[in-house]
Amino acid sequence: MFDATLKDRELSFQSAPGTTMFLHWLVGMVYVFYFASFILLLREVLRPGVLWFLRNLNDPDFNPVQEMIHLPIYRHLRRFILSVIVFGSIVLLMLWLPIRIIKYLLPNFLPYNVMLYSDAPVSELSLELLLLQVVLPALLEQGHTRQWLKGLVRAWTVTAGYLLDLHSYLLGDQEENENNANQQPNNQHARNNNAIPVVGEGLHAAHQAILQQGGPVGFQPYRRPLKFPLRIFLLIVFMCITLLIASLICLTLPVFAGRWLMSFWTGTAKIHELYTAACGLYVCWLTIRAVTVLVAWMPQGRRVIFQKVKEWSLMIMKTLIVAILLAGVVPLLLGLLFELVIVAPLRVPLDQTPLFYPWQDWALGVLHAKIIAAITLMGPQWWLKTVIEQVYANGIRNIDLHFIIRKLAAPVISVLLLSLCVPYIIASGVVPLLGVTAEMQNLVQRRIYPFLLMVVVLMGILSFQVRQFKRLYEHIKNDKYLVGQRLVNYERKSGKPGTSTAPPQSSQE
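^ thats the sequence. predicted structure below, dont judge the formating
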């Protein structure tokens, strides 16, 4: 795929062992994660009991940490060997074999251009992290993408079930269950009239009621056709062919579309395949989404279609404005601030001039923004968390442009601009007025950002400790002097000032 040999991998590992191990571990973790996600989607479609050989991650009784402690070592070794065989076979089926076919049918298509250049204006490593952490989750977390994939799996399962007479094994007897449910009242009326119990019927009915009381069971009976092992073998062969074709499409179509679109911009120059793959993936997704929307709108008439197109055009314009602010300006400022505070002081000596690449800063800023947003949503309640939750709850269809700009974009951009501009003004405008040397000016310009960061962090720690000491003081004071607490209803006094609100007293003569 990348025109590399084992010797190239060995040299890469010898030159940078930590980076090589991290990249291979990251790719393996992403592969295992999406494989497990696909298995969870299969469980939603297939009959309970088909995937009996795979552990259900949603099972409340499944405790991997407890099993890791209590099970013997040979059980873990057996599971490890089985996992390696399964994952390795899928890698051979969906990567090695499709690559051989692509090289035979399309000799000029491979290898992918993923060369890492040290003087490149954009870091491909940051682009790989951006693709794995932003692009793929953004596509797969979309409800439409999951529904499309689930629909394709269901259609393939129904087709394979009817071709091989395994519909009952794969999906269960749903139609028969519905017919039995419709005929159940009639059968119950007939039983009441006959009053002749069938042997074992009451015990079986009670047993089924107990099993189905807590929801769906882990196994559902099915009808076993003739020559069942042969049909299962043909099903596995059909599944392998389908996975092979799907892998061929995924390895070629997005890259073809991305290369064709990027050729209008860059010409014949070689581009990193992360650009082309991400561009082609988004174009394919948008095309499928547009086709499905038009198919859904066609029966409603031309007027409704024009109205929907007008509404979606307005929504797309609002989304583009929000994307430019939140996905363009904010990550760029955040990445530049991170570069000035952390990267430049650690990597560039004082006698050298640091170089800043906006695209690389933007790519890293997207990752930082995603991490900060996740930490904010997991943290305590404050204004930024409230605003992000409100924007997420509104969604794209009910996007409020004025609210996002006034409550989220403007404050965040203002804070980032102040964090970038105030140290620069101090270092370049105030310090030269003090009559210091050029070396001192350079030192202040290069170290003022991390110094101010340390000051802010120190002030935050001090304020946190002051609040903790105040709480400790109140706790000690209450333990020593507090006698008791009583809840008293608050009653607002009615009447004008100066008038008595006491109730009238009756006097006896």
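DSSP finds 16 helices and no strands in the chain.
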